[in-house]
Amino acid sequence: MTPDLLRLTDVTIEFGSPKKPIRVVEGVSFSIGRGESVGLVGESGSGKSVTSLAIMRLIGGRVVQGRIEFEGRNLLDLPASALPEIRGRDIAMIFQEPMSSLNPLMTVGDQIGEALLLHGWRDRTKRRERTIEMLRLVGIPNAEGRLGAYPHQFSGGMRQRVMIAMAVACEPKLLIADEPTTALDVTIQAQVLDLMKTVRRELGMAILLISHDLGVIADVCERVVVMYAGRVVEEADIRTILTRPQHPYTRGLLRSVPRRGHEAERLYQIPGSVPPAGSIRQGCPFRDRCELAVSRCAEEMPPMFRFGPSQSAACWVTAAAEGVTQAGAAA
Amino acid sequence: MTALIRAENLGKTFGATGGWFGGGSDQVRAVDGVTFDVDAGETLALVGESGCGKSTLGRLLLRLIDPTDGTIRFEGQDVTRLSSAEMRMMRQRMQIIFQDPFGSLSPRRTIGQIIGEPLEIFGLTRGRRARRDRVAELLQQVGLPPAYMDRLPRQFSGGQRQRVGIARAIAVNPAFIVADEPVSALDVSIQAQIINLMQDLQRDAGFSYLFIAHDLAVVRHIADRVAVMYLGRIVEVGPKRLIYDAPQHPYTQALLSAAPEPEVDTVSRRIILKGDVPSPSNIPPGCSFHTRCPIAQEVCRRDRPPLAQVAPGQLAACHFARPNPIPTGNAA
Ligand SMILES: Nc1ncnc2c1ncn2[C@@H]1O[C@H](COP(=O)(O)OP(=O)(O)OP(=O)(O)O)[C@@H](O)[C@H]1O
Ligand SMILES: Nc1ncnc2c1ncn2[C@@H]1O[C@H](COP(=O)(O)OP(=O)(O)OP(=O)(O)O)[C@@H](O)[C@H]1O
Ligand code: SF4
Ligand code: SF4
Ligand SMILES: [Mg+2]
Ligand SMILES: [Mg+2]
Fold it and tell me: Is residue A329 assigned to a domain?
């Protein structure tokens, strides 16, 4: 087992005033090994972005509980002055909208160069070479000639690739990618996912890929963390999630995706809709939509039960059905 | 059998009149020489990359915008020649569902007013009472409690809003509905609810859909036939089974192979296209796909391939059309 690069333990995040807090993330725990690719999946509003922003300490809300350890250091204890060094050099983040991290008034070459300078690349010529190398790596044709181009002179897919080049230029140990391909067309998405896999392989970087699309996650990730209403409800390696999901929500999610060979059948639908953030204070957050719910589900939040060496899920009923009694997240 | 709706050589150029800035250099040929049919009761899906002209084509069919060239026949009648008064009555037969049905509506109007409006315009109900009864019935049909009638749009979730948009579209008993990315903004679990609803309503009422989407798994589920667009043109069209199992155009093949699916052991033989989608204001000559096509030849840069039959009911526009040599799925 690889030692953990990042470990979140019992992370709880609130928005709103301290007197009337809205808890949007509650008791989230998971870890990422060195060089590992982990997917974070869940419906809109389930807390994926808030969780990942908390790792970067870029969040507007308050982390009221828990630890976020990177190489054994709790990031939440670090002084603000130590953050710029961590961001970019240790952990880099890319977003759905590339223009949120690219400066429209600066050439692409200068932006990547500036990121390198910030992380100790003093030599101008080396910076330039490195910038060209990164733009080539992400497949920008005529990289040298494009150093002086501005972000608006690139297409959406190319901007996404420039952003990846900038994020990985300093060889971070962890790349957090928040829906990096959601706004892109399928053929361009395929290019970008392919690129992320290449970059990861070549630089030995770990990836936390956030997406609502299990297909995208299955393409890139080895392990998956499923969130629902601010909590982790299941975690397993990708194969197990796809073939033997244990949480009724994960099962429903997989069954509601239209599948090859099942066109004539009616789609499975999870009834109801996602509860608003912070609205569920007691019991299992999925109980109003769950076909398996029993009375205990309304009273007590189920802990994460260990279903196997790499799988855990928070469900009273499936745990009992499988004879699982041991609580605790998968290793 | 005659088609319910037939487009012939349909084209749309934006900025055709020179526009405010005078010159013709910013012209966008959004739809270019498109010919196809939609039969009664069928679902024709329209797929293709962003900006390829799908929404423009949908709007042209309903004459929400006027074509630059070509004709549209609806139940045999040339709708491009109808007066605006005649067109208004025709609209009762053709409706549209948007990605976000409230994007274009006043946030201060109640759901009852929004759904009731087409009933009023077309005189389908007499009086307030009858209209409210019909709205209640429609809400029930789309799975919303009739009591929601007096609520405002902001009180609804994305999936509920889409249900309201559907209720509004079916209120006038249309024969043809353009659904422009109706589930693209929804979460997977809600998406399944809306797809099931759209299929149930179609089965009961027998109308046709032009279903615009970019999710190829959703299209495979809902479509009878599929049309693939690239830079304003249809490059391949045919029965769903043939398009998915034996696509003949290299763009269709790449598109299908690129769609990620949540399956284990998917043969990961993706065709990764090089380069970017060209701008629709500067469409490459010859076959417009030649800048990205993995098998392009000299002739492709020069001659534009016609949309020609490659199998019964299947047409493709490629000089070298042939069945897909690369399996797009796991099990064959
Ligand atoms: N600044 C904020 N103030 C108050 N609530 C917030 C704020 N940011 C996020 N939230 C709430 O936190 C919850 C989780 O949001 P988050 O953005 O993490 O969801 P997500 O899983 O990333 O969803 P999506 O798939 O839509 O991106 C949501 O209910 C959201 O409304
Ligand atoms: N009113 C308009 N004026 C000028 N150009 C337009 C107008 N409407 C659309 N276009 C252009 O026509 C082309 C086709 O646009 P359209 O909206 O039909 O694409 P689409 O296939 O629906 O894309 P998407 O998947 O992003 O919705 C685009 O280049 C677009 O910029
Ligand atoms: S704990 Fe109960 S409500 Fe929650 S997922 Fe399991 S069965 Fe359903
Ligand atoms: S005509 Fe030529 S460029 Fe166009 S799709 Fe066929 S092979 Fe490719
Ligand atoms: Mg998010
Ligand atoms: Mg569109």
Answer: no
In a domain, B166, yes or no: no
The DSSP H or E segment spanning A23 is strand A22-33
Structural domain contains residue B103: no
Q: How far is Cα B212 from Cα B192, in angstroms, rounded to an integer? A: 16
The DSSP-derived string for A278-313 is T---SS-TTGGG-TT--HHHHHSPPPPEEEETTEEE
CB-ligand 2 contact for B68 (6 Å cutoff) = no
- Could you tell me if B200 and B209 are in contact, meaning their C-beta atoms sit under 8 angstroms apart? no
ipTM: 0.85
Contact by Cβ (8 Å): B189, B183: no
Mutate to test the interface with B, among A262, A267, A270, A274 (most CBs of B within 10 A): A267
Q: Does A56 fall in a domain?
A: yes
Per the listing, tokens 């569902």 go with: B97
Domain CATH for B192 = 3.40.50.300
Structure tokens at A251: 């099962």
Query: Phi first, then psi: what are they for B184, rounded to 5°?
Result: -65, -30
Structural domain count, chain A: 2
Q: What is the pLDDT of residues A82-137, one digit of tens each?
A: 988 888 889 999 988 877 788 999 999 999 999 899 888 999 999 999 999 989 88
pLDDT at residue B78 in the model: 94
Q: Are residues A140 and A69 in the same domain?
A: yes
Q: Which residues contact A120 (CB under 8 A, 6 or more apart)?
A: none
Domain-embedded: residue B151: no
Q: With CB atoms and an 8 Å threshold, state whether A270 touches B192.
A: yes
The residue segments making up the domain with residue B305 are: 3-15+28-93+174-316
Rounded CA separation B181/B100 (Å)? 9
- Asked if residue A182 is part of any domain, the answer here is yes
- Predicted structure pTM score: 0.90
Pair (A162, A25) in one structural domain: yes
Task: Enumerate residues 183 to 222 of chain B having a beta carbon within 8 A of any beta carbon in chain A.
Answer: 187-193, 195-196, 199, 214, 216-218, 220-222
Paired sense of beta strands B77-78 and A311-313, if any: unpaired
Same domain, A95 and A216: yes
Task: Kindly state whether residue A62 falls inside one of the protein's structural domains.
Answer: yes
Select the residue of A44, A213, A242 nearest B263 (Cβ to Cβ). Answer: A242
